[in-house]
Structures
1.
Amino acid sequence: MHPYLKKLVQSFNISPSDQPKLEPLLEQVSAYLAQIEFISRNSRDGATRSERSDTPPLYLDGLATDDHSPEELVRLLQEQSQQYERQITQLAAVKLGLEDSLSLLNTTLDATNDGLVVFDKHHKVVAHNKLLTDFFGITSEEVEHSFVGRKLKEMLKATVYNDDTLLELIRFTNQNPAEKAQGLLHFKNGTYVECVSKPRFLDHRIVGRVWSLRDITDLKQSEEQARHQAYHDNLTGLPNRALLQEQMQRALKSAHHHEHRLAILFMDLDGFKYVNDSLGHDFGDLMLCHAAMRLKDCIREIDLLARYGGDEFIVVMDEVTSVKQVTELADRIIKELERPFFIRGESLYMTTSIGISLYPNDGDSAEGLIRDADMAMYHAKAKGRNNYQFFAQELAVLSSYRLSLRNKLKTAIEEEQFSLVYQPKVTTKENRIVGVEALIRWKLPDGQVIPPDEFISAAEDNGLILPISDWVFEEAIKQAKAWSDVAPSYFTVAVNMSARQFQQPDLVENLMALLHKYELPTRFIELEITESMVMEDVESAIRILARLRKLGIRIAIDDFGTGYSSLGYLKSLPIDCLKIDKRFVDELFKSKADRALVSTIIYLSHVMGVQVVAEGVETEEALKLLDDMTCDLIQGYYFSKPVAPDDITVMLANNDTSEDS
Ligand SMILES: Nc1nc2c(ncn2[C@@H]2O[C@@H]3COP(=O)(O)O[C@H]4[C@@H](O)[C@H](n5cnc6c(=O)[nH]c(N)nc65)O[C@@H]4COP(=O)(O)O[C@H]3[C@H]2O)c(=O)[nH]1
């Protein structure tokens, strides 16, 4: 105790029991006295009055205590002690605040879902939590040295091989202490951890760094799941169009690099629409899954199989060494799909048409190769389905021709480049005209005539078929009205209906409006629709046909025998006439099977009360045979080619118009 304090205790007679209470204060005072003693040496008058003796003079703020009475001294000391008490109270509050902050920090560190470690500016660990040690499988003691040297290597062992993200992050933060750094760590136990490192600032100065680690495995997994869904077809689980594009880009790059060849096989199931329409979409879905499985079995590990669209699949064959290898795969696929499918107790047959393009022969872009294979697939369909065709440049020429046709078609209607010709339909026995078929002709301003087979499908593709069909209908009805006065009552003008037109919801209303406009009785009009148009949606087709028929319009099925229809379904169709396709008529003398087929079609049609017309009859021989087979009507060059309306008017005038037809 300071000698003056001793003196003080003695002079104020402070009891020994009270002395401990005063002790903290006395200690403070003692420290203070030591301080003022130092100050006193530099007192205002500069005199050094602090010669060391047993009772050196006491100075308070430069005032020697010897100069003051004890009362004054006590007052001064009391003032000082009060000041100390205030300071102590303040300090205690600050300490409490600090303790509170520390406890808050510790609780926060433990409660957070992130692994945290806080460093000071000397890279010393200031704080960390348990999660951090869990992530790396280290102890709390090891954290101290964890981010440097050998320990860091140990710690990195927790992440997957070759994931040196953490190392990179540390390097980056050492070089850029003021920057935030962020990375994704992949741990051996499968977890994905997002790692963020931020500098700590105090008064605009960097005082250290905080590292936080967050387990984002769930997020990553749902991301993966979303990615899988975005890139795979829900039904078959196969890669979809988007993934195919990506994978093809990669395969093309690698093929270019390694000088490999690729083959793209574009497959379209034949008549799948029929399965869907007749057996339902659920059944169709099952069929697609089965087909996908079979296709998968046909390809090698390195090949890619994707679902491109409804019933379209694509195989990208990698490392192709020969064309034979490709044709073998195409054959295998065709055979594999030809085997019957047994689904829900039904056995079904399915075939496929395949178009093939080759890299680098046919191009080097994914889109181009797919387009070429698609074109070749259409060629395979045209060749009778259930076969494969390689892309050939001629197909591209054909396709660009179709494109140029489409552009020219746009002006054809406005410039009245279309006209109608009419081909008579006559009775097989007497060759009496019972009707005509209206056939469109397109003559370009330069005199070039383009046959309908060439431009109708192009017009179907770009939607121009609708205004063209409207024009044909109006023109044919106008002409039928002109003939209605001279023609017998059974005379009909048949008009070909386009697939798009058949799908128009206001088809019946539009047709009736036109008939009304030209005051033509409905019985003069016959609509020719193809089997495939009916098969698109059998139920709705039946509904529309029944409505038209009820209004008195005749219905004929055109090109019969070329589609997928069976004779069986004919009985459910509300039709008046069936036209046997020219292909069968051509084969009458060449193929016994076709002859038998034509005969059966005629017989069954009659049983069902449907009239039969044979198309494309060119010879007397064919006419006679068809007559023997009891075919009702014929149409073909034998009697007349399609001719101008005036020629028909003349024919009608010379026609036997007896009403017994
Ligand atoms: N070699 C040969 N050919 C014969 C003989 N008899 C008739 N033909 C031809 O066979 C086609 C019969 O018409 P389609 O089967 O309805 O087949 C038509 C029809 O599907 C479509 N088409 C024609 N006009 C129209 C139309 O106005 N609208 C729609 N949507 N399609 C039409 O174009 C197809 C072809 O029409 P066209 O070229 O006029 O060809 C016509 C006709 O000229 C014959 O004895 N020998």
Note: The chain has a mean pLDDT of 85.
2.
Amino acid sequence: MSKVPVMEIFGPTIQGEGMVIGQKTMFVRTAGCDYSCAWCDSAFTWDGSGKGLIKQMQAEEIWQELVQLGGDGFSHVTLSGGNPALLKNLSHLVDFLKEKEIKIGLETQGSKWQDWFVDIDELTISPKPPSSKMNTDFDILDSIMQRLRDANQSNHISIKVVVFSDEDYDYAKKVHLRYSDIPFFLQVGNEDNKTTDNTQLVEQLLTKYEWLIDKTMLDHEFKNVKVLPQLHTYIWGNKRGV
Ligand SMILES: C[S@@+](CC[C@H](N)C(=O)[O-])C[C@H]1O[C@@H](n2cnc3c(N)ncnc32)[C@H](O)[C@@H]1O
Ligand SMILES: Nc1nc2[nH]cc(C(=O)O)c2c(=O)[nH]1
Ligand code: SF4
Ligand SMILES: [Mg+2]
């Protein structure tokens, strides 16, 4: 069977992060992750707390739900998770969306390869810095980046590293210098991904954003880099499904 575990489908909304920030898009969030980042803002996809929400779905069913939500008012779908790259069967959804002439974005951390990566229009690889408590396997990451380069997709791939600390920043720089031919994004870390106090959250995020900008601008080793907030958190805070 060609089903995949889906945690939530939502949109239309803006892509709040990375290379296509601001893009009107639908989201399909898959369940399950091979990581367990200390600060994961989508931990319900892997920590058991969202177990009851998981639906095993075929590409066609996912499409129906997307259309129910978005009508004919969308042309872009972002796949996120959890780690969608755990799912070989997502190839069916990717093929289905391509047939419908829908552009596809993908959010993944660079721990696993899938052949359907080459069919993604905007692919974001987001290796995890020390504060996540995860370890990057650079042999695997090297091979994924090489396969993506070989597939001649380099215009549509990017690396995005979330930064919480000086140590994370140093890690981000190491990643950037290792793959210096790939468009690179720094993203502000959200340290308080449970709070419902949006005023306080936004204030905190803005302070952090300024810190990250200041640091990067003074750094001559970071040249071709984009420094971004997680835009959706400035509008909707930690709300799910937006
Ligand atoms: C929830 S993850 C799902 C996709 C994939 N597992 C990954 O990590 O790339 C989507 C994006 O959110 C980022 N993210 C998760 N928690 C965050 C936080 N507390 N602050 C900022 N970004 C966060 C991740 O680094 C990743 O780039
Ligand atoms: N609006 C919005 N933009 C996003 N970009 C990446 C997201 C994710 O959780 O993967 C996300 C999300 O959950 N919402
Ligand atoms: S890799 Fe992504 S989904 Fe998995 S725990 Fe880390 S941030 Fe969360
Ligand atoms: Mg998110």
Note: Residues 4-236 form a domain with the TIM Barrel fold (CATH 3.20.20.70).
